[in-house]
Amino acid sequence: MKSRLVIRAGVALAGVALLAACSGPTGTNSQTTQNNSAPAAGDLKVAVITHGTAGDAFWSVVKVGAEDAGKQLGVGVTYNSDGDPGAQAKLIDNAVSQKVGGIVVSMANPDALKTSIENAVKAGIPVITINSGSAKSVEFGAMAHVGQEESIAGEEAGKKLKAAGKTKLLCVIHEAGNTGLNQRCDGARTGFGGTVENLQVDISNPTDIEARIKAKLQSDTAIDGVLALNPQVAVNAASAIKGASSKAQVATFDLNADVVSSIKAGDVLFAVDQQQYEQGYLPIVMLKLFKENANTLGGGKPVLTGPGFVDKSNVDKVAEYAKAGKR
């Protein structure tokens, strides 16, 4: 649940965003262990380092958010990503050696990044964690965390699926070792109250994702709900349901243009929207304010960007932004 402090923080940051000039680049897929962005001019240099894998459109939106903030605020932003925790830790080490002015990092596997993040903090570099790993953020010395609480979001998704009349749920995990994804499924299990079974797939192999979901639905016809934890997986799941002639319906975490279209068509019930554009944008604003005015946000608690829900009742409002790569 959002505290008053979190709400005030979001309002303050929204004000900064409204005062800044707007730009609207189209999102592009992140590339593993590769610098994907040219630094903007500015005295403050920030390294954004995520666990996004190549081809995952979710992280393209995070990247666009960070780059938009950099351009608007005169902050030099570089974006790098690697789905391998050890390689991601090396990217953090490289940023420390380059003496950047700030680091923004997602922590799908917090323990693998602990030493690298702590070394950054010891070097006097402010660190903001995003998206996942909020429970370890303060412990590792980060000044703030921006994201959604995965267990709470999962619980709310489970409640919505139960209210939709579903009785048996398949929760599809697309990245092995990502603690946040397991928290989503665990939360869904709590909120749903009925039977929830996890299915492990590989985000980099969409053909196999569809085949695995289809096979599961064919072998267990009692499954009437599929909870995807990624918008690309949601599209694969919707196709698998049709291929299996199943009665199941899909809900998903996160949003892109394909999911927007699927919600409109009735192939996806709803999307849990954590507004990942803000997870890229807000940390740049926060680091800028910290450098220039010694401001901090959150008071040791996460600055929440979700969960929100997109369904047929409000999908038209966000469709245009999704097409622009910002939702």
What about the largest sheet? 6 strands, parallel
Unreliable parts: 1-34
User: How many strands appear in the DSSP assignment?
Assistant: 12
Molecular shape: elongated
Distance between the termini: 22 Å
> How are the strands of the biggest sheet laid out side by side?
2-1-3-4-5-11
Report on this structure.
The protein has 327 residues and is of the alpha/beta class. Helix content is 48%, strand content 17%. The protein contains twelve helices and twelve strands. It has helices at residues 4-19, 57-73, 85-97, 110-122, 134-140, 150-163, 179-192, 206-219, 231-244, 257-265, 276-293, 315-323, and strands at residues 45-50, 76-81, 102-106, 127-130, 144-147, 168-173, 195-200, 225-228, 249-253, 268-273, 303-304, 308-310. The strands form two sheets. The protein has a six-stranded parallel beta sheet with strand order 2-1-3-4-5-11, with helices on both faces. Helix 6 (150-163) packs parallel to helix 7, helix 8 (206-219) crosses helix 9 and helix 10 (257-265) runs antiparallel to helix 12. The radius of gyration is 19 Å and the shape is elongated. It starts with a helix and ends with a helix. Residues 1-34 have low confidence and may be disordered.
